Amino acid sequence: MRPSDALVSHAVPSLAPPFASSPASLFVSYCPKKWVGYGGKCYYFSEEEKSWNVSQHFCSSFNASLAGIDTLQEKDFIMRYAGLVEHWIGLRRESGQPWKWVNGTQLKQQLFEVRAEGDCAYLSDVFVSSSRCYSVRNWICSKPDAYMKAKKNAMEGE
């Protein structure tokens, strides 16, 4: 466990810098234990290495998926938190096809470029790259935090 996990995992999503928290936010947790909250999502950063498929299966067992990245700010947060270790993210392509997230949406090219010629994407400490999906790496799961999930469910119930 990282030294900052205890504080960060209880941070309330806000517009403040990712590691900032107010005293009140320490009493509210929208993410499960050992998950990190940021921008309405919860993230799990693995400490072991698995293939892309096994990593996705692990995430699915927690009602999550390998991390999708919607904004440059989210990418920057994930890269800072992941540090120097390479992590699988939820981006994959079939040979000769465009990159797609695990939810089926296509990668927006203005978000970032994926380097190399592999079929599964991972984050390094400075860029997004790709390799063969059977390679082993750490991984990042993500899912909506409890507040965002409840808000979505309430809106769908209207």
TrEMBL record:
GO cellular component labels: plasma membrane
Primary site of residence: membrane
The UniProt record lists the keyword Coiled coil: no
Top-level taxonomic group: Eukaryota
Cell compartment(s), UniProt: Cell membrane
PROSITE patterns linked to this entry: C_TYPE_LECTIN_2
Residue intervals of the C-type lectin domain: 38-142
Transmembrane segments annotated in the record for this chain: none
UniProt-listed PANTHER family: C-TYPE LECTIN DOMAIN FAMILY 2 MEMBER D, C-TYPE LECTIN DOMAIN-CONTAINING PROTEIN 180
The protein's name: C-type lectin domain family 2 member D-like
